[in-house]
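Worked Example 4.2. Consider the chain below.
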Amino acid sequence: MGLAIGMITPPVAINLYVASSVTQLPLERIIRAIIPYLLGLITVLLLVVYVPILAGWSGA
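Applying the procedure from the previous section yields the following structure tokens:
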């Protein structure tokens, strides 16, 4: 999950650059569109890190 967050946040943001290139949309527009998903990823990451029973409960 940490890797997914790293791939959609600057300075790396390779997924954002690819999406911008493929869709021909400005990078700023794509960044605004992914903010809710980014907040969700960060929330789940924090929950799994600080409440480890959640990671074991999932069955993975």
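The mean pLDDT is 86. Helices lie at 2-7, 14-23, 27-50, 53-57. Compare this with Example 4.1 before moving on.
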